[in-house]
Amino acid sequence: MTTGGKPTDVERVACEICLKEVPKSEATVPEATDYVVYFCGLDCYERWKSQNAKPNNKVERPAS
Known about the structure:
This protein is an alpha+beta fold. It has one helix and two strands; from the N terminus they run E-E-H. The chain has a domain of 41 residues. It has a two-stranded antiparallel ribbon. The relative contact order is 0.17.
């Protein structure tokens, strides 16, 4: 006998880079001390990591 129940809703999260929604259980989750970010896969995680590793290109100039 099979049960004709409704499938349970899966909690979904948006990828930090491409905003694709993925099941929370399948998301890559690097944790920091103040926040958690989710990624749909290693490609988006690597893009995020390389964006955050770049030095700030702004050059501060003293006021005249």
